[in-house]
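Lab channel / #folding
Pinned by the channel admin:
"Please post every new chain as: sequence first, then the structure tokens as a reply. Keep commentary short and put observations after the output so the thread stays searchable."

First post following the new format, from NK:
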Amino acid sequence: MTGVNTEQQFRSVMAECRSLFEKKLHDYGASWRILRPSSLTDQLFIKAKRIRSLEVKRESKVGEGIRPEFVALINYGIVGLVQLEQGFADEVDMSPEEAMSHYDRHAQEALELMLRKNHDYDEAWRSMRVSSYTDFILTKIQRVKEIEDLGGATLVSEGIDSNYMDIINYAVFGVIKLTENGEEDI
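Reply from TO:
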């Protein structure tokens, strides 16, 4: 597969995520603005843990499969990047238009990062199992928790923003692979 195909697939997944994000903004406004960093990290954690649980159990009692959880990880990852920049608020302080502007900028940054890494790693993600993306995402979330617990005072590690970007990209890869494999749900 060529990098062009990967870029097209990435853009397609991000367009789907953007559409859902925009619809939720209509319904709820930017209610996520009140999430403190630790709460956002916990939200990412429960989404990733549910994916792992579904991968292991191979059954969903709620009726939603793995794919929607990867989509949620993408959108919450972008929310995380916005919150890192803007800080959390005590009430909704961002219009849907502002939120979408932030969303689009961070989605573009994620695409650009994926293209750079995909070049260097020669599309290695295509040979990986979807369950590995889940484990890598859980590892990134654990790293974010550790960095939060350290108050951001790391010695040699990338920051929380880099971990959010990796979570977004691994989740996009998960959606692409599930779609390619015809495994939209469990």
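NK: The longest helix spans residues 3-28.
TO: also worth noting, The radius of gyration is 16 Å.
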